Amino acid sequence: MGNCAQGFKDFFCRPKNTNVRVSLPAVCFVWQIAMIILFGVFIRYNEEADTHWVEHKKSHNITSDIENDFYFRYPSFQDVHVMIFVGFGFLMTFLKRYSFGGVGFNFLIASFGVQWALLMQGWFHTLDHSTGKIYIGVESLINADFCTAGSLIAYGALLGKVSPVQLMVVTLFGVTLFAVEEYIILSLLHCRDAGGSMVIHCFGGYYGLAISWVLYRPKLHLSQRLNGSVYHSDVFAMIGTLFLWMFWPSFNSAITDHGDGQHRTAINTYLALASCVLTSVAISSMSQKTGKLDMVHIQNATLAGGVAMGTAAEFMITPYGALIVGFCMGIISTFGYLFVTPFLEKYLKIQDTCGVHNLHAVPGMLGGFIGAITAAAASESVYGKEGLISTFDFEGSFKDRTPGTQGGFQAAGTCVSIAFGLVGGALMRIPNTGFVNVSFLFNRSESNFSVEQS
Amino acid sequence: MGNCAQGFKDFFCRPKNTNVRVSLPAVCFVWQIAMIILFGVFIRYNEEADTHWVEHKKSHNITSDIENDFYFRYPSFQDVHVMIFVGFGFLMTFLKRYSFGGVGFNFLIASFGVQWALLMQGWFHTLDHSTGKIYIGVESLINADFCTAGSLIAYGALLGKVSPVQLMVVTLFGVTLFAVEEYIILSLLHCRDAGGSMVIHCFGGYYGLAISWVLYRPKLHLSQRLNGSVYHSDVFAMIGTLFLWMFWPSFNSAITDHGDGQHRTAINTYLALASCVLTSVAISSMSQKTGKLDMVHIQNATLAGGVAMGTAAEFMITPYGALIVGFCMGIISTFGYLFVTPFLEKYLKIQDTCGVHNLHAVPGMLGGFIGAITAAAASESVYGKEGLISTFDFEGSFKDRTPGTQGGFQAAGTCVSIAFGLVGGALMRIPNTGFVNVSFLFNRSESNFSVEQS
Amino acid sequence: MGNCAQGFKDFFCRPKNTNVRVSLPAVCFVWQIAMIILFGVFIRYNEEADTHWVEHKKSHNITSDIENDFYFRYPSFQDVHVMIFVGFGFLMTFLKRYSFGGVGFNFLIASFGVQWALLMQGWFHTLDHSTGKIYIGVESLINADFCTAGSLIAYGALLGKVSPVQLMVVTLFGVTLFAVEEYIILSLLHCRDAGGSMVIHCFGGYYGLAISWVLYRPKLHLSQRLNGSVYHSDVFAMIGTLFLWMFWPSFNSAITDHGDGQHRTAINTYLALASCVLTSVAISSMSQKTGKLDMVHIQNATLAGGVAMGTAAEFMITPYGALIVGFCMGIISTFGYLFVTPFLEKYLKIQDTCGVHNLHAVPGMLGGFIGAITAAAASESVYGKEGLISTFDFEGSFKDRTPGTQGGFQAAGTCVSIAFGLVGGALMRIPNTGFVNVSFLFNRSESNFSVEQS
């Protein structure tokens, strides 16, 4: 970790007018070398990905290769992977002068983020203290994608305002914070949060908003005319929207329990998303004199149902419960785009380019509380004795926890994620005072995918 | 169902000049609330998605979580989901002024359609009369996507001519008709139709054509110049084409029998599609003086092989049989675009924007008959004794049915689907006399995704 | 095979000024009919896709349908399918006047290629000599997609310079060469090459370069201004890049051993790709005065890590080993785009439109050697006794082979693939002397997807 901290300090604190031609390659090279060294020291294949699987199978009485975790999770993993790179990437192509930046920088930081996430999450969650190694498998890859998603959400609030080097720093710091926050919420508080309403969306959203607040530049309105879309860039953004929307059931179910856990989570998410589309469209149409629909709402608010089901989807929230969640989220998120985003910009000086406040921060927070309520309402009559234990992992030192207590801890977990996001993002100001002087936002055609010096 | 019927009547019969700003939100809200109430009354998780799975597993001697139906069908489900939202959606982006409308309204009506389909199909197929509940799992989600596909196909014939409220009505009515028709074909006639040549494509195609006939407006030729594509909108449409084409093996195999059923269906569909591309290209090139290819044929006719294999793909049609089906369909479908679509518009006054006649109606109908012939030709020597029974479900009250009889019933099923499509679509005229007065088709730049009053 | 050889000769040797309106339909029809006849004679379902699966299961003590190979490989197959049609197709849309040609001709030749590949690979690898039949299943479909990929790679070097008929010939010849080369490398030399660094990428890359050399036309620089991209065509190309990048772990793991084999391969490929992105970006930024990134590098060099892991990914290369491979490939590939492509064009008269030299040929070759080194370094202490045997298939007549020997054979295999690519491509000159006189390259707007006479 020492190497990495070194790299971190080097580039985080460098003078503000470093030319990007030097700083970007330097960051990429040094950090990637650090990753290689750290992987060499820490990361190994787990027993399901190692050639010793043949022997492991025999010793554990596993009768068929199909019981390898790979076959339970790999299809979902690939769906999640598509969401991270095509979903988030293309959702950010809507700006007429920044399509390359949206999809390209997303590609760069996600590629770095997953590597750093494998290390950070490994140290906190799966480090084998007897060997000092982290053993990875397909579930680790999914978790790494999830962890990176937090930073990509933050990028949504910063789109067009930061240099790639700054984005790398935001990602390094974001993944680190994520791993700590996740450790507190999942391990210490023993919350359930398979789809990450709390740990991913709520954290990522507030993290991005806090950085955006730190970054505020008063002359930004001069470039306001560049903060717009053209017809084709909005169609590109629909590619992102649809791949996020379609694969969200995989996102939420990717790491839930084998069997009924994954099955139920997928159904709940599917229903919440379907319901969310109708109310988003309704509010969008009502908000305009002519009843026209606003593409911003169609591209974003329709996804809020999936965000809000990240925690509760694996519980017995019931199919109609899922529809109700989607129904409310479509309304809340669209109202957010109509009223809260302009308010944040005007009065709180927070510029939120993609509106992550309405798509991730608030629905994620509400999703955390919905999860808390659903958990608190759980009962043996609905879940069955064994079902209750396996759903909430009431085992080991948590075997005496009641659903009511669990609900309380879930709510506490949500507050932890908000705090980490806000404080973590605000802290970004301290080490890099140059941050607020970044001088390029849409100030030129980006037709060469150019990035100017920060 | 009462609530829904109420909502149905309210909006279906409302005066024709309602402003879309009122009618669209009203339809979305009222119908979505109706869905929530009906789901509350009727829909529950099935035993594979419920927390009682732990106990179910024990009582049914299931040794591993991997035998949960989720793992058999979820990857195919996600492929089907991509076809419904990205495939159908982007296929309809080709119009230069209606890309948002194509992908956006498709998104809206599919999101409503799947919910209503879960209820309608549940009532007809899986209602547990002892509890009065419908138990859903991943197969239900796939079926709901299928059911919605019928209405999306109909949208293809209406693209650019109807308001979103009318589309919602078309979907409500279409899904209802679909469930009835499917009940007659699959349950009463005991047909096999896993990929839905009959129940989805043939029905959906004729349903759309019949509505388009009802909608005919004589002045439409004045906006003819807007019924065109531009270079980039045609590239967007290729995204739709390719995702439909690639995932069609999943579409046809998603709900076939576990094991060899899914395996064989995927292979047959893959081969028919490959073959179809070559003959589509050949006819397209022959049809133009310079040998240029027409993007309309590349985008559509190449898919006809998948449509036509919807019924027969799960039978032992043999690999070369699949190639022959694709070969013929590429020719028939491309000829349809060259000669039948202009004929329909000129003489029968049916405007078919996307050419669903050539891509869905005719290949679907032929697919039904191909299925009938393949079924009639089945024999114990080819299928094996047990294979024949399991492929055609000759069990229970159908245990004495012979392949020959089955073939007859398959053919009858195809006729039922045509009848439902034509009559159902034509009936759309009765309750809504305002339908024919819809006055907007491409009459303005759609750059704001606007919808004008219907 | 006689029919096909006939069709081959007919169109391969036809006079050079044949109008494409005649030649393209003729090639499509005759070759497709040949496929149908050959499939009728040779191709049948294998026991896992046949209705006799019920009996096969009983006789082989298979307890559950989930152990059908379909469930091990179908999700990966669909990912590979997306790479072939959307990945390769959209990666070639970047030319401003040739987006239709890129995606459309890719669609055409891949559809033909997979059929011919099923036959060629069947004859060489899976022909049952007792019945004279080839039995196909999902693994055959994956292999057919792989085999076709070789020709699609070659198309990348020829993009915009050849007619569709010539592309069909290139594919027919390419698939044939591929099957022979693959037979030598995998069966005779007993190499392991699951992801095809050698057999697919190295072969395909050099095959395309050799054809491009044969095709060289001195006046090409006159159309240089058309060999460029516009903003939106570059965004379309990113769709191709990302789907290739995301699904590469599926590509490499699609046909590796069940269980740990697929699991480990996916992890290694994922890591190499992530690492490759950072170094590609670094070199790209360093290469320009202003630190701007070049979209050509982002679209292509980021994929080199996946290419280079095609052979070694299934071995115990270790996670950090995978990162190192990606690290080096990003550098090498980007340098290739900066220096080698211009050199090839200026001094060797090889025009390589998509830069397949840097993305496929060199990384594929290096991947072959990386595989050789990794294999040679294998030991029982790392792999375990049974693991070593199953990973390298040291069974039957190869049961005495040592890892060191295996490494030597792997290296030899790489040389075979280079030789086949170069010689095979250069031979394309002989039968078709008209090749070099093809007169159209971007010489008109391609807005009608037109192809002019060859």
Automatic annotation (TrEMBL), chains A, B, C:
One of the protein's GO biological processes: ammonium homeostasis
Alphabetized GO MF terms: ammonium channel activity
Quaternary assembly: Homotrimer.
Gene that specifies this protein: RHCG
Protein's membrane topology: Multi-pass membrane protein
Transmembrane residue ranges: 22-43, 80-98, 105-124, 136-158, 165-186, 198-216, 228-247, 267-286, 298-317, 323-340
Name the UniProt record assigns to this protein: Rh family, C glycoprotein, like 1
Keyword Ribonucleoprotein: no
Species classification: Eukaryota, Metazoa, Chordata, Craniata, Vertebrata
Record organism: Myripristis murdjan
